[in-house]
Amino acid sequence: MTSAITSHLDPEHAGTDHASVEHASALDAADPLAGLRDSFTLPADVIYLDGNSLGALPRAVPDRIAATVTDEWGDGLIRSWNDADWINAPRRVGAKIAPLIGAAPDNVIAADSTTVNLFKVLSAALALRPRRRKIITETRNFPTDNYIAEGVIRQTGGAHRLVHADDVKTIADLLDDDVAVLMLTHVNYRDGSVHDMAGLTRAAHDAGALVIWDLAHSAGVIPLDLAGCDVDFAVGCGYKFLNGGPGAPAFLYVAPRHLGGDGQPLSGWFGHADPFGFAPHYRPAGDITQYLCGTPPVISIVALEAALDLWDGIDMRQIHAKARQLTGYFIDLVEARCGGHGLALISPRDAELRGAQVAFTHATGGHAIIAALIAEGVIGDFRAPDVLRFGFAPLYTRFVDVWHAVDRLAGILDQRRWDRPEFHLRRKVT
Amino acid sequence: MTSAITSHLDPEHAGTDHASVEHASALDAADPLAGLRDSFTLPADVIYLDGNSLGALPRAVPDRIAATVTDEWGDGLIRSWNDADWINAPRRVGAKIAPLIGAAPDNVIAADSTTVNLFKVLSAALALRPRRRKIITETRNFPTDNYIAEGVIRQTGGAHRLVHADDVKTIADLLDDDVAVLMLTHVNYRDGSVHDMAGLTRAAHDAGALVIWDLAHSAGVIPLDLAGCDVDFAVGCGYKFLNGGPGAPAFLYVAPRHLGGDGQPLSGWFGHADPFGFAPHYRPAGDITQYLCGTPPVISIVALEAALDLWDGIDMRQIHAKARQLTGYFIDLVEARCGGHGLALISPRDAELRGAQVAFTHATGGHAIIAALIAEGVIGDFRAPDVLRFGFAPLYTRFVDVWHAVDRLAGILDQRRWDRPEFHLRRKVT
């Protein structure tokens, strides 16, 4: 497999042994994004390959939170809704996410959780296609998205039907004139495979349907162009590659043509045209704030905002190039050093078709191998029933991290250090 | 009005002038809860009478947040879902709220916003009364509650109807056999008047309807007994008298008999019976966790948890007694010292019928008087169109605060210091 590793090599370091740690160091030395790692706090004894589940802590966040808590809340009290501009935080944070997803600032807002936001936009989309009864999803979509579709269907009286495509190739065939909405996650949570956003959006529109993209695993990894792809609605996560902290507020996108009207059913006061007029009836704001509901979680939202400041001036093409390089390097090293132990790659081998994560299956030891890795300081995660999943956040993951992670994985496999009773005990991980 | 002030006097200080600041100090000296103020950080130059809108910062909160951010997120990373027990934070916090509202720990959970939670429980309640079409509310209910009912009705196809009672006395008359849900806020946000929870719940049940109580302005003020009153559902706010910080997670209560079934339509993965099994279809947890939806906002929820620790061992009857005493003292002093300036009390004069807030109307100067008070360091708030609203959080409000607030109000009114152009400019306050 050494020849494959060569492809990740900067030409000027062609003299090093491609499977060596020196080669990894050379790749880091050539990485134009390497300096960004210093903007994060990472524990010294850990190799963190789970930024796709919970992003690392940006150094700027603790001080920003402390200022909001102590100065804005403690001293400013209620006045900070104006004086610290808490009131506009959801729009301000949305506008910071917008360039990462190819959207205008006024079409993105930070609010609630990804799941709640999906409820909003799916409900709004169905209302825009009142005579169509089908929602198309994938069986392998992130489960909460499909659960929410089931919830919306129960709520609207069961007139709609959720249709699961078992294979990506069959999605287009399902798009008939009874389809209201095609709802997909852009980068798959298990295997990191990427959907063709432009092509599938076009196919849905050709059938008269609307599209909703879940960007949980692509925002902050892949250059996105929601406006250019003519996407109708999107939702995404604040705590993965955007590093907003555990349970950070999520975001949502609404195409300009779909703003206004009744909008969405979670019609709370923060989405009212005049929230502080205390009128007896709901009157939708008519712009993206209509997708707010209750009072925004200020402390969590400022943490996300401070994390987003890191993206200022970053070229998403460089981020994507590094994601492809890190994931490709990991695949190559695992296949070079961990062969014969039953690991099977389920992520796409073509770097263009995967996000910043790589997954292998293992028939019997999936959970235990991850548990052994964590015990030895390499944090990946396990997804039932048999998936070992590794994320490579381009902002802070080094090539030497990849090298040492595989080195430890190889040792664990070679010596079967994973096959101990304590590593087979299932614990909840998210 | 001096005779009325006498009623707030501890007998041993009967010698002081009842309208004097020395009398206020004597009341503080006799207050068994006075020491709790030291558990809060309050700015030295402010008298804060807006804890009903945003509670003050408990001293324990900044360190708790810093530990969660720096240690649990920064060092623990994804492991903290287990190691720091983030996964159980919504139930743990719910269990800490339970004794304040007369509920069993397993019937309360912290989640989302009050408004989103109302959507959940209202939807669940309507599903339990499928053949009934009316939702009864008050015209003067907090607007977001009525807006959400409108959203649920739009979502469910318009078969339901929201009926507004214009007067509390007419509510019982509206309870016929077509009513599915009676939905009220226990303490009114504008005038602080308290509904008869036991009586109205009984009346609704007698008509075969379910009840939902919004406890935003009563949790942390009045001893509540949801279980004893046989309440079906309740929602409440984390950032008012519970001091959880701006936009803190809210809470909800579900009676044991209503747990299970489909439950609620925001059926996200955190409400699934096995969230990390990643099954293709939703299977409700069957207990209170079924009312969770997406990933909980960890940083906000630990702030609320630290704030709730203050309530450990507190007797809610003492809290309620102090709320009645503070509000009564305020009313007496305002009427004694601010007469003839057009202020009209709209809160109940009977202390048993009001929460921890007092409101006056003023025909022309409502906003400007509040703005002038804030400029002079007394923070109350204005509610359109003409309401001056003052909150008296029993945990940290002193009688001397009340005295000085009225002293400044009297000066502002006597000298018409409020009638300046800058005080008439409307700013958003929440």
* Biggest beta sheet attributes of chain A: 7 strands, mixed
Main interface: chain pair and counts: A-B, 93 and 93 residues
CATH topology of the largest domain in chain A: Aspartate Aminotransferase, domain 2
CATH class division of the largest domain in chain A: Alpha Beta
Q: List the quaternary state of the chains.
A: homodimer
CATH architecture of the largest domain in chain A: 3-Layer(aba) Sandwich
Question: Which stretches of chain A are low in confidence, meaning pLDDT under 50 for 5 or more residues running?
Answer: 1-13
Q: How many beta-strand segments of chain A? A: 15
The assigned structural class of chain A equals alpha/beta
Domains of chain A (count): 2
The portion of residues assigned to helices of chain A is 25-40%
Question: Strand order within the widest sheet of chain A?
Answer: 4-10-9-8-7-5-6
Shape of chain A: globular
What are its keywords?
15 strands; alpha/beta; Aspartate Aminotransferase, domain 1; seven-stranded mixed β-sheet; Aspartate Aminotransferase, domain 2; 13% strand; 430 residues; four-stranded antiparallel β-sheet; homodimer; 13 helices; globular; disordered N terminus
